[in-house]
Amino acid sequence: MSQTPSAAPRISRRVGAIAESATLAVDAKAKALKAAGRPVIGFGAGEPDFPTPQYVVDAAVAACSVPANHRYTPAAGLPDLREAIAAKTLRDSGYEVAANQVLVTNGGKQAVYQAFATVVDPGDDVLLPAPYWTTYPEAIRLAGGNPVEVFAGADQGYLVTVEQLEAARTERTKALLFCSPSNPTGAVYSPEQTEAIGRWALEHGIWVITDEIYEHLVYDDTTFTPIVRAVPELADTSIVLNGVAKTYAMTGWRVGWMISPVDVTKAATNLQSHLSSNVANVSQRAAVAALTGDLTAVQEMRTAFDRRRRTMVEMLSAIDGVHCPTPQGAFYAYPSVEGLLGRTIRGVTPTTSAELAALVLEEAEVAVVPGEAFGPSGYLRLSYALGDEDLAEGVGRLQTLLGEAR
């Protein structure tokens, strides 16, 4: 008598193991509650609240009427945009790259995915400083790699050291993810720290995948240091990830890029030719306008972010049990809430930051992302890329609720 074979899983193990983007999930839940009539204030999404600069929009409108933009174009990107990215890299980062080292991608996330897919093999370890952006470990796993977390807490300003990286290095270590300014913490590595990490990676033949999408958003006397400028010899074993989303308030236009050695760029382009082909041409034309224009609009946005940053840190730091290092870049605060865990708030005693975030959403109608999305529990991420009034109201609600902790 034949046996009925067991049913195969409907979803592949590879895709079934992917966790939903926690930041997008929080943002979606906040928007759904708001649509249902609840006065929710969302600190979840890493998205500037400003409109895209008008000169960029005008370039896109004009591009819509050009028939060439209605057709397929090279998978690696419009030649004009690849040239503009190369010129922008020289202008902003201080070193030269050729246009054929540039691959234009559908937003920064595609650049992240393709970078790992192109240089990581199954079984390779990738060092991942934590707290980390929620997409990094998933992209590493999709490439078959093993994310190896290297944690630096609030006491270190969320900055890992060479000694920590060396302690985590094995013969399987293939790459290091380096993100400065950081999402989720807003931490920025100094020129000296950046160079030390770069030289350590060079010494051990470790690829550096460096995410520089927040390069223009630094505050006070902080400076952004491109790791390839700090250690020029890394150019042959590095992949630079970037895009227009954060700098130019263009999250919805979906234009990112990766810059890498020519052989890596060619291999990643082959992948993209099957995955998605070219980025929408109208968006690419808008990106050309953004990158070749001046940075006035960017400076105005940074001024607003800086003001909101100081307000948020001051208000969060006034809450007993909250420790909030001052972020030096990006547009996120990443307070430690370990001092609140195990204390009772309105009859509930949260023991993790995920439980605390759920309580905050229910009781204060404020959406924040718990630390579990970015590494260890005990932290919250709050974006200050929202209006001044909403920011003050939202953090004020947190002060009221969390001030009841006993």
UniProtKB/TrEMBL annotation:
Q: Where does the Aminotransferase class I/classII large domain lie?
A: 39-397
Top-rank taxon, per record: Bacteria
- Using the UniProt record, name the top-level EC class of this enzyme in a single word: transferase
The portions of this protein that span the membrane are none
Question: What molecular function terms (GO) are annotated for this protein?
Answer: pyridoxal phosphate binding; transaminase activity
Which Pfam family, any one of them, does this sequence belong to? Aminotran_1_2
Signal peptide range in chain numbering: none
The answer to whether UniProt assigns keyword Lyase to this entry is no
What are the protein's UniProt keywords?
Aminotransferase, Pyridoxal phosphate, Transferase
* A GO biological process held by the record: amino acid metabolic process
The UniProt entry, under InterPro entries, shows: Aminotransferase_I/II_large, AspAT/PAT-like, NHTrfase_class1_PyrdxlP-BS, PyrdxlP-dep_Trfase, PyrdxlP-dep_Trfase_major, PyrdxlP-dep_Trfase_small
Its needed co-factors are: pyridoxal 5'-phosphate
Q: What is its EC number?
A: 2.6.1.-
Name the protein family.
Belongs to the class-I pyridoxal-phosphate-dependent aminotransferase family.
PANTHER family from the entry? ASPARTATE AMINOTRANSFERASE
This chain belongs to which protein, by name?
A: Aminotransferase
Native species of this protein?
Actinotalea soli
